[in-house]
Amino acid sequence: MSDPAAPHWFLAGAGHIGTLVACYLQRAGHRVSVLRASARAPIEASLHFHGSGRRQHISLPVHTPATLAAPIEHLIVACKTPYTAKALAGCPLAADATVLRLQNGIGSLDGLLAPTTRLIETVTTNAVTGTATVHEVVAENQSWMGDSGPRPTWFDALTAAWPGLVWTEDIRSAQWRKLVANAAINPLTALHDVDNGALLDDAGLHAHMQRVVTEADTLLTALDAGWPGHSLAMVEAVARATAANTSSMRADLQRGAATEIDAINGWLVAQGARLGMDMPVNAELAERVRAAHKVSHASRR
Predict the structure, then answer these.
(1) Which of 107, 162, 168, 225 keeps 20 to 30 A from 219, CA to CA?
(2) Is the pLDDT reported for residue 2 higher than 80?
């Protein structure tokens, strides 16, 4: 049952993670609607939680920007990063809106929000697979929300519905840890069409992964002298825990979809350029993924 005092969230990107977060918010009494460019029937889907065996049905009404009677006060951005600008086109955001960004990579909302918008970065290590109507929640791990402001009034109640959710004022560290893992795992598994565990089993791939991590750590240390570095053990742990998984970038290339390479390795390369640092390992991976996407996309036209 919804809580009249809880926020009404609009969701841009009702994929696996977006739908899971909508489920958590509904459990906490929040209303959630999907924002789409064109009108359609409500989204009906089921979530299967492998850890508990629980199954939950979710129904999400769909709205278009043109049908909204008032500006959006609370928005979740959970679409793939290449589609961010299109997803927010015409979105009537209130000047003081709260936006949860729940995407891989960094920088996808740069220039798209008003300076007065409250942007709360959200990082999750949950794992979800499945189809558009059946979401298989393989693992519920830790998730972080945070920005430089005070914890929102609705946050504490949400933690009872969202396992492993914590508030942190140091959200950048969580972002950067996930960024390094994504930069090392996603493009290599996509380009070689292998499960994540192959990066540990194949000596050549492991050495390449290590070079990606070393270069990323060098850049992040230049950006923040307090960055601890030594990220390889963390990345190896992620690859080991997800050994049988297909990375999102590999899945994107397999179906000819746009990848998030520009917000992951591309972001690292762009930051290096800003500091006058060469990033040859990440730059090469980014170029190879872009080229592979062109080939994959063309073959499906």
Answers:
(1) 168
(2) no
Per DSSP, the three-state class of 244 is coil
Pick the CATH number of 173-299 from 2.40.110.10, 1.10.1040.10, 1.10.10.10, 3.30.360.10: 1.10.1040.10
Mean pLDDT score, 156-164: 96
Domain 8-169, classified CATH 1.10.645.10, yes or no: no
3-class SS of residue 243: coil
Using the 8-state DSSP alphabet, how is residue 15 labeled?
S
Reduced to 3 states, what is the DSSP secondary structure of residue 67? helix
pLDDT band (50, 70, 90) for residue 298: confident
Looking at residues 264-268, what average pLDDT do you find?
98
Q: Is the dihedral of CA 238, 174, 27, 16 positive or negative?
A: negative
Identity of residue 196: N
Q: Could you confirm whether 294 is annotated as catalytic?
A: no
